[in-house]
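Methods: holo model generation. Sequences were used as deposited, without trimming of termini or removal of tags, and paired with ligand SMILES retrieved from the corresponding compound records. Each pair was processed once, and we did not select among multiple samples. The sequence and adenosine monophosphate SMILES for this entry were:
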Amino acid sequence: MKVLVTVKEVAEVADDFEIEGTEVDERYLEYDLNEWDDYAVEEAVQLKEDGPAEEVVTVTIGPERSEETIRMALAKGADRAVRVWDDALEEPDLLDVETKANLLAAVVEEEDPDLVLTGVQAGDDAFGATGVSLADHLGFQWGAVVNALDYDHEAGVAHVHRELEGGVEELTDIELPAVLTIQTGINEPRYASLRGIRQAQSKEIAPKSLDDIGLDADAVESDLTLTSMYEPESESDAEIFEGDASETAGQLATVLREKGVAE
Amino acid sequence: MSDVLAVTEHRRGELRDVSYEVISAGRELADATGGDLHLAVISGDVEAFADDLDREGVDYIHTVDEGEEFNHDICVQAIEALHAELDPQVLLMPNSVNGLDYAPAVANRLDLPLVTDAVDFNYDGGLTVTREMYGSKVETTVEVGGDRQAVTVRDAEWPQAEGVGDAEISAFDADIDTDTGSTVTGFEEVGSGDVDISEADFIISIGRGIEEEENLDLIRDLVEATDATLASSRPIVDNGWLPKNRQVGQSGKVVTPDVYLAIGISGAVQHVAGMKGSDTIIAVNTDPNAPIFDIADYGIVGDLFEVVPELIEEFE
Ligand SMILES: Cc1cc2nc3c(=O)[nH]c(=O)nc-3n(C[C@H](O)[C@H](O)[C@H](O)COP(=O)(O)OP(=O)(O)OC[C@H]3O[C@@H](n4cnc5c(N)ncnc54)[C@H](O)[C@@H]3O)c2cc1C
Ligand SMILES: Nc1ncnc2c1ncn2[C@@H]1O[C@H](COP(=O)(O)O)[C@@H](O)[C@H]1O
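and the model returned the structure below.
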């Protein structure tokens, strides 16, 4: 079996930042492997180590910069990577779900995996939708917010738990080929070992343009336009304690005593 | 067409709160588009659900009597058929865990632009949606083109619809193929155990700001000195540092203590869902822009490793 994992490089915003137009100024952004995708990579690598998967391939839509993140996934055990990028993708401030699913579907069709693992959501744009949209593009089955996966190779069925609200999990059987969106906590993502990091240097990251995956600029036409970005107006009337650590702790202690919860 | 179609949700025989929220959101939008508000009720005891959902502002309720529990294959087919019949301007769905499991497929199948996790919207000939990015640190507005649109709405952003309506309730025959590729086989309750944090009066909750498992001892000392109950955000439980029954939030416990002291927690929407009903909320966080301060009553912008030891001293 072949497993494909979608891996996004996400931007994290510094404590203090400035917005330029409809973007956070580049100076205040730090890039990292999306938390949810880290768990998806681990789940795929475990499927390989436990037997059923022969190959784990990652796919990323991202500029050259994202290769650093892709190397991280390779160092953790993925075999090779595909990176899709194109000048046509430079323009929009926001890649919408449909565009992302279009591009990823083209790669999935080329790679022909049995199982695709995505994250539940990307930490930055937080659509929480790309995996399920991708499944429907492909005509694959799917399951969203999966926090336990038991794969039955004989039957070609994934027995999964979907984590619902309020401490309830749904037990579902999903026929392959399928896309599962992976929830944090499903496993313990490993740290890349020194050996893994060294090996990752010689693993393939194949760059692909739209043309390479058989698409044209229409595939990235979006109905969504980001028209403004701003810091949300705080509705808060929080009283912020001033002073050094001992002064602020003292004021906090007074509040706790006033509320009668601590003595 | 200017109608709005909103999809409701239930689980194990009960309507979920989001169902009443999508009514309010849908009514607001239908007023702006100048159309009717239609509700979709899919699977389960649809007749009883429809009666309950007939609240003020609902014009039509369409029931699809197929299956007991949510199944995404059935849900997607039902909405697809209803959409073809009603041709609504906007399709509203909850941004719940089940919403995540069908809304993107519905949008794809109907070729609708999709905007998820809306906290506000505006319709003025065209649709503009407000949503957050970067863990709620920024808000954005998104103009949604296309002839028709699909939007999922954030939990608890709109009030629950009340009153009694006089909606026209009718059964809709969606002609559904029940030979589905996924089968729900059951449910499991998780996160029970020795403590029930939802009973506590004073909760000290710790988040990823604690950095290392060893550092939890510092928080345990504070918990002991103040006789509080220890809880946490999700990453602490994901890491296996605390058991599941200590997790506060959407997928954990909902708590309403007299005082909730959040230390090193950013205040992500799924966390806030579990603690915003606390009487008094106090936050300790190094980031003055952390969203937790938006719902806090008191705050310290500072390093927990400096503040907590001082606090322990206060109570020892
Ligand atoms: C479907 C779904 C369900 C979810 N369910 C839940 C849920 O039930 N509960 C939940 O909590 N989350 C849930 N999440 C995850 C949620 O989105 C967030 O990822 C999570 O709440 C973040 O936890 P955190 O605030 O501890 O970590 P972070 O967001 O990483 O925040 C850490 C905070 O610590 C601060 N900090 C760092 N160092 C220090 C220091 N030295 N002193 C003081 N402050 C410091 C930082 O400024 C930051 O604000 C869910 C997500 C999804 C998609
Ligand atoms: N640019 C991208 N490249 C690769 N995978 C992506 C990209 N954007 C989203 N994904 C995948 O889709 C998941 C959900 O993202 P989103 O729908 O944007 O919240 C992520 O966890 C990734 O696995």
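Residues 35-49 of chain A form the longest helix (15 residues).
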